[in-house]
Amino acid sequence: MIRVLLAEDHGVVRGALTALLNLTGDIEVVAEADRGDKVVPRALSCGPDVAVIDIEMPGIDGVEATRRLKLAMPACGVLILTGLASTGLLRRAMEAGAGGFLLKEAPTERLAESIRRVAQGERVIDSSLALAAMSATTTPLTDREAAVLGLVGSGAGTGEIAARLHLSTATVRNYISSVITKTGARNRTDAVRIAVESGWIEGPRHS
Predict the structure, then answer these.
(1) How far is CA 73 from each of CA 30, 39, 77, 139, 189, rounded to the nearest angstrom?
(2) pTM over 0.85, yes/no
């Protein structure tokens, strides 16, 4: 039996997934969590083989929950569930120690198979997301978003960016929010790092 901890904040979704996984015959959901900060305590109390963690959780997000879980229980595999096909999120999840990354719309059979593979130490990435990652030389940012993020990287504040690009401060904030979502970043500084590493914008120049 593969022992699974299921972390999902929506009770109906969590209940449905638990019921379906328990019907597989070789997977048992031994604990559930409805918040990211409950993942490690629940895992320590039940010793799962695999933790299935939703990326968007109250308390702390799925990536941070993964990082803390891998520090506390390195042998526990982690499969991240997400509704957003973002290469930035994929990068963050893998850096945190996740062994798998699966889109929420995947059928239950694929979820079960991914859990089995993660339990065996394999790395599992949703095929559509893997394809996007391989072709990630094409930036997801619009020209204006890239311009705003480039100025963020140079140290400019919201007001300065608005003045230089002839935009309102509210529009600049909207662009920054959009960039953070697209890159899967934690904040604007992290978005700059991801975009520079991906080759989507130039890094800040230092004199």
Answers:
(1) 16, 11, 9, 36, 29
(2) no
